[in-house]
Specification:
The chain is an alpha/beta fold and 551 residues long. The chain folds into 3 domains: 204 residues, Rossmann fold, CATH 3.40.50; 141 residues, 3-Layer(aba) Sandwich (Rossmann fold), CATH 3.40.50; 107 residues, no CATH class. Helices cover 39% and strands 18% of the residues. The protein contains 22 helices and 23 strands. Strands 3-2-4-5-1-6 form a 6-stranded parallel beta sheet. Helix 6 packs parallel to helix 7. The longest helix is centred in the N-terminal third of the chain and has 24 residues. It is globular. It starts with a helix and ends with a helix. The N terminus is likely disordered. Belongs to the helicase family. This is ATP-dependent DNA helicase. One of its GO terms (molecular function) is hydrolase activity.
Length: 551
């Protein structure tokens, strides 16, 4: 054995000397080209033939880091530093002694005090102060050194809550929960997360209307198992919040019946729920703005499906006093992003505006059109795609994989400019970098994207985004795409924007909304009609509302 080892050492030394002599004989351009080729070969080898030890160690480190962040959010609190709303808790009686917010706050705090558990649903249309109330509830409980978990169905909603996480990530829910007969959360009894779930005083789940009923039922079974208690959620206190006028769970290639069957109101757990309601629009109440009051009424009419429908074509006419009607896509872009060449470096200006559309094909077209106006050159990042089962590689050539654009995935060829607005498509480092976080590109490096966070509690922080492998879940076969998990976000799909508040919002309705609540979600991102711009052919569009969901 020792002689063989010495021979190996000698062979390595000779190889190293040969490489050194070769590099000295190359020009700087030849060395740079050789380095780039070697990096590409290394990336492809790691992707196609991953080393088992490294492939397991890296996700393990990521999971430990995420869990540590979760534990800090569960146990470590400083109410005077972390919770800007906490100072208002003692002033609730003076602010609104009889309002809906006070009733909701008192009801939940009484349930926490009695340690009685229960399942509550907070029905809260936009502008009624839902985020304010749940922030106060979280702050009060945490200031008493108790555990309060903040979850949300979307990444955007999670960033608005202190210590917030997406429910799928925190509870380890299956990605394809809708196709599993009896799903459960992948949380073991002896894990740290299990300890958190046993000790928590409340679990708050925001934007719950987007969640599949099987997710809530899986969470119920897991809590009963972890707590050894067959009561609802193992006797824990659960507060769901949302608005059923908004979009329902997304199910690929589904019918309205499938969407209704998947929503929480179709769950066997819904009958045990206690409903709380916020009715007063606090934006209108505090500003005393007649235009905002009328806008709020019109929004509810859209959400409830009470706008008069033309029986001949099934369309509604957009009211003139409801928004500003744009006559073309170019005009819509100019209304939402005026003088973008002068303003795009202002991150506050960039964050507070976006254009929404029902389908990604129109979202992508608008994003490319806006990015083309920015100065500078386009940097192209091409993904490395491969099938999971190498036996099927002949059936799915690389060119075919490159042409695919599954939902929730970045494109094969990602075109970006410095200054562009982008949105994350995967959880990278929650809660700082999670699905739905918006950023502005600062530098475009060969193997990294340097960007500034635009939303959430870490707003203004500069971060590095790496390429990561992603596997779509809605394809008839499995393949991996190694790419930066981002897309342009000057424009976004309506479903992606749910939970986000904007200062200026444009809505592209050249193709009608196709699912429940999409028009309501798009129009309710702003609080006044002067900040809403809509492009619709002939000023008419389709408003899809499922009455069964609202009953």
């Amino acid at each position: 054995m020792p002689p063989a080892r010495r021979a190996n050492i000698g062979r390595r030394t000779r190889n190293a000397n040969d490489v050194a002599l070769l590099r000295r004989s190359q020009t700087a351009d030849e060395r740079a080209q050789a380095n780039a080729s070697q990096r590409e070969r290394n990336a492809r080898n790691r992707f196609v033939n991953p080393v088992p030890v490294l492939n397991l160690a890296r996700p393990s480190r990521i999971r430990r880091a995420v869990l540590a962040e979760m534990m800090r959010a569960a146990f470590n609190y400083n109410s005077q530093i972390d919770y800007s709303m906490y100072g208002y808790i003692g002033m609730m009686d003076a602010i609104c002694p009889h309002c809906d917010q006070k009733h909701v706050y008192d009801t939940i705090m009484q349930a926490v005090s009695n340690n009685a558990g229960g399942l509550y649903f907070l029905d809260a249309p936009g502008g009624t102060g839902k985020t304010f109330v749940i922030s106060l509830i979280l702050a009060t409980i945490r200031s008493d050194q108790k555990i309060a978990l903040a979850l949300a169905s979307s990444g955007i909603a999670a960033t608005l809550l202190e210590g917030g996480r997406t429910a799928h990530s925190a509870l380890k829910l299956p990605l394809n929960v809708q196709v599993i007969e009896t799903p459960t959360c992948n949380i073991s009894r002896n894990s740290a997360m299990a300890k958190v779930l046993r000790l928590t005083s409340i679990i708050l789940w925001d934007e719950c209307t987007m969640a599949n009923k099987k997710s809530l039922e899986a969470f119920n079974r897991t809590m009963q198992d972890l707590r050894g208690n067959q009561q609802l959620f193992g006797g824990a206190l659960i507060l769901l919040s949302g608005d059923f006028r908004q979009t329902l769970p997304v199910i690929p290639r589904s019918t309205p019946a499938d969407e209704i069957n998947a929503c929480l109101k179709s769950s066997v757990l819904w009958r045990y729920l206690q409903k709380l309601t916020l009715n007063i629009n606090m934006r209108v109440h505090l500003q005393n703005d007649p235009a905002a009051h009328e806008f709020s009424k019109q929004l509810l009419e859209i959400g409830d499906g009470k706008i008069q429908i033309d029986r001949t074509n099934g369309l509604i006419a957009v009211p003139n006093n409801f928004c500003t009607i744009a006559q073309s896509i170019d005009e819509l872009i100019e209304c939402v992003f005026p003088n973008i060449v002068q303003n795009y470096r202002n991150h506050d200006w960039l964050t507070e505006r976006a254009i929404l559309a029902p389908k990604n094909i129109h979202v992508n077209a608008i994003n490319f059109q806006i990015q083309a106006k920015l100065p500078g050159v386009v940097t192209k990042y091409k993904s490395i795609d491969s099938v999971m089962n190498q036996d099927e590689a002949m059936n799915y050539p690389i060119e075919f994989l490159n042409s695919l654009e599954p939902a929730g995935m970045p494109p094969h060829c990602l075109n970006l400019k410095v200054g562009s607005s982008i949105i994350l498509l995967r959880n990278i480092n929650p809660p700082k970098l999670c699905n739905g976080t918006r950023l502005a590109v600062k530098k475009l490096l060969p193997n990294l994207i340097e960007a500034t966070i635009l939303t959430g509690k870490s707003k203004g922080e500069v971060v590095l985004i790496p390429r990561i492998p992603m596997i779509p879940t809605d394809m008839p076969f499995e393949f991996k795409r190694l790419q930066y998990s981002v897309r342009l976000s000057f424009a976004m799909s309506i479903n992606k924007a749910q939970g986000q508040t904007l200062h200026v919002c444009g809505v592209n309705l050249e193709e009608h909304c196709f699912s429940h609540g999409q028009l309501y979600v798009a129009c309710s991102r702003v609080g006044t009609p002067s900040r809403l711009f809509i492009y619709a052919q002939n000023g008419k569009t389709k408003n899809i509302v499922y009455p069964n969901v609202l009953d």
